[in-house]
Amino acid sequence: MEQFAHYQPGAYAQEHIRITPTTLSDGRDFFYLDDEPQFVSGEKTRELKDPRPLAYRFAPQLDAEGNEVPYAAPQMRRDPLTGDWIPMATARMNRPITAGPGATAKGNPLAARKPGDPYQDGEVPDTDYNVVVFENRFPSMVRVPGADESVSYINDNPLWEKKLAVGRCEVICFDSNETGLPADLPVSRLRTVVEAWAFRTAEISQMEGIEQIFPFENHGQEIGVSLAHPHGQIYCYPFIAPKMEQELQHTEAYFERTGGNLLKDIMQGELEAQERIVMRNHSWVAYVPAAARWPLEVHVAPVRDVLTLDELNDQERWDLAQMYSTLLKRGNAFFDTGDGKGMDLPYIAAWHQAPIHDKRREHYRLNLQFFSFRRAANKIKYLAGSESGMAAWISDTTPELIASRFHELGEIDIA
Q1: Are 21 and 7 in contact (CB under 8 A)?
Q2: Nearest-CA neighbor of 56 among 29, 28, 26?
Q3: Can you give the residue ranges of the Galactose-1-phosphate uridyl transferase C-terminal domain (predicted)?
Q4: Pick from 185, 168, 173, 178: which is nearest to 234 by CA?
Q5: Does pTM top 0.90 for this prediction?
Q6: What CATH number corresponds to the domain at position 288?
């Protein structure tokens, strides 16, 4: 396997996964993660040359009048009322969309290359792949070489800070099947996806200016997914995101008050209560949190104290792949559409891992927060006045009812 500065593969990855890096024609990083034996052994190799004649990603651009202007680097502004940084990336208005009524692309940029196809703006150089990871072509946050990263003020008023959004955005494609669903992938392929999360967490955590690494998956048109392909993303913030900041404040206060780890004690409390536990195996526990906000919400926690995805051992990575596969399948079966087949559930899977530099990281704990805003087979929960206007959640169900439905779908002990 290729040697990387900070990622250390375990025994399984050394023998069964091959990571091959290359660079796309505009200068972005790209990685193949192969689990097929002929690629792992080196018997077969991947296409490394991107044939597209793309301009350098940070090259000057033309404005509406045809004048050359500098690359429009994403910026961020701080909300003086909340302290939150808000990234703003105008280039994302031009990104291709293949899902929903606003579709703008005739082809799928996340698909493997199809020689002879009229659409030749795909991101993957090869005609097939297992898992790939690459920098987003239309990032919300990116470091621009040589750009001034200092704080300045809008209208010269110190109320309104602004600076460049010098983070990083990556895309992970789970499989080359354009119409496939993550829930239908074999556990072995999801194991490779887990390795990709760990690989990128290890490498990105050493990059300058990154404070928090957030792997996540948006799935389903109702969620707002713009590209119809089984994939996820990794947002790497140059700040602590608001939800993580709120969690860190509570985990730190709990430690100062009790000397304990809040996330671990929540998991232990759920195990003792039993009724909201929906799955468990050797390494992981899945439960509906006692104060669940969403009509379908499950949190997944490691049994062992772990801060970040790259700290997981081989057994934990396999057990996670198994649990994630089971969770996706049961999520699809959660709502009865009348034919016994369930539905392709729209969901968000959000990895909460310890921040990189913040001293409060030692009292945090890795966890996955999985949720859907679908509240019935034909209804969704709209985030209206109370939720959107005041962030004051009103639940349409109870955590016990959610857990009870999961209990109908399968055994709690899955290994």
Answers
A1: no
A2: 26
A3: 248-387
A4: 168
A5: yes
A6: 3.30.428.10
> 326: domain range?
243-409
- Per residue in 317-356, pLDDT (tens digit) is 999 999 999 999 999 999 988 888 889 999 999 999 999 9
For the stretch 38-55, what's the b/e string if a residue is b when 16 or more beta carbons lie within 10 angstroms of its beta carbon? ebbeeeeebbeebeeeee
CA distance to 28, 77, 165, 237, per residue, from 149 (Å):
20, 13, 8, 14
Inter-axis angle of helices 314-333 and 187-204, to 10 degrees? Answer: 120
- Domain membership of residue 3 (yes or no) is no
pLDDT in tens, 224-234: 766 778 999 99
pLDDT score of 95: 53
State both tokens at 267.
């998991």
Angle of CA points 23, 356, 320, to nearest 5°: 75
Return d(Cα 164, Cα 105) in angstroms, integer: 29
Q: Which of 212, 239, 266 is the last residue of a domain?
A: 239
231 is catalytic: yes
Q: In degrees, to the nearest 5, what angle opens at C-alpha 227 toward C-alphas 380 and 201?
A: 95
Residue 160 counted as domain residue:
yes
